[in-house]
TrEMBL record:
This is Ig-like domain-containing protein. The lineage of its organism: Eukaryota, Metazoa, Chordata, Craniata, Vertebrata. GO terms for biological process: leukocyte cell-cell adhesion. Residues 23-122, 129-224 form the Ig-like domain. It comes from Phoxinus phoxinus (Eurasian minnow). Pfam families: Ig_3, V-set.
């Protein structure tokens, strides 16, 4: 037993004094960063190298094309005036929706066995609801269908929608109790058959949990009864008369053509009966009789 301890103890001492040979590693404490619009965003990037004491740090943003954010010790473009870096962790000040995207932190250690390490951080800039655009028909005929539309294209995450009639929320109840359908994701309100009771002021509200809900201005939808316009009635009557006259003229022309063809056929038959066909043998017999 003692021999075993004597042999292993020096080995343990050697292991304790062996320097670390880990290659360059890059990590982040938060791979997904969500911040409100016009606030600061901290994109974490931490690294550890094997031998390199002065590694090169770069930040890139991936979109339709990859663009540099931090390169060769300086920030590029608009980031130059509103960004800072501590080690490899980058801070963006006053972020907007344009800053949302996927960022890459790259660390290059030339003296290490593995010379390049990288990590990805996704930045999501939350945008509160804006006043949505609403489409409400001014008039709808009773018994016909109608559609009302609502949309907010700027909010992040995407907004959900609710409709109000005369400042009272429209709830989705049993199909037998209501004559409309409401899609909270698209903001579309559909009426199968409107009635006089559907007349009123409608407005839409957009919400996404980031900021206060926003509404569009209320618009009135009127329901009208189906009434025949005298101008339309007169136009329909004139059109019917013209169609009738056109049919009569067509029939008369057809009758005249039929009579004409019939007369030509009878005349042709009469001429044929009055002028029998000439027979050369008959004339030959007559000549021999005279002689």
């Amino acid at each position: 037993m003692s021999t075993t301890h004597i042999l292993t103890f020096p080995a343990l001492l050697m292991l304790l004094y062996i320097p670390s040979s880990d290659p360059v590693t890059v990590t982040t404490s938060k791979a997904k960063v969500e911040v409100h619009e016009n606030t600061n965003a901290v994109l974490s990037c931490e690294f550890r190298t094997e031998k390199e004491t002065n590694p090169r740090v770069e930040w890139k943003k991936r979109g339709k094309e990859v663009s540099y954010v931090y390169f060769d010790g300086d920030f590029t473009g608009a980031f130059n005036s509103r960004a800072s870096i501590d080690g490899a962790t980058m801070t963006l000040r006053g972020v907007t929706q344009k800053d949302s995207g996927v960022y890459h932190c790259e660390v290059t250690a030339r003296q290490d066995k593995i010379k390049l390490g990288e990590v990805t951080v996704t930045l999501i800039v939350l945008v509160p609801p804006h006043a949505p655009s609403c489409e409400v028909p001014e008039t709808v005929t009773k018994g016909f269908s109608a559609e009302l539309h609502c949309k907010d294209k700027l909010s992040v995450p995407a907004a959900t929608y609710s409709w109000y009639k005369d400042n009272k929320p429209l709830n989705i109840g049993k199909p037998a109790d209501i004559n409309y359908t409401l899609d909270p994701k698209t903001g579309t309100l559909k009426f199968k058959m409107v009635s006089k009771s559907d007349e009123g002021q409608y407005r839409c509200e957009a919400s996404n949990g980031v900021g206060a809900p926003k509404s569009c201005a209320g618009r009135v939808m009127k329901i009208t009864e189906y009434e025949l316009n005298m101008t339309i009635v007169i136009a329909l009557e004139v059109g019917a008369c013209l169609l009738f006259l056109s049919c009569c003229v067509s029939i008369c022309l057809c009758c005249r053509r039929c009579r004409k063809r019939k007369g030509e056929t009878i005349q042709s038959r009469t001429k044929t009966s009055c002028n029998p066909p000439t027979d050369p043998r008959r004339y030959k017999h007559t000549q021999s009789f005279v002689l």
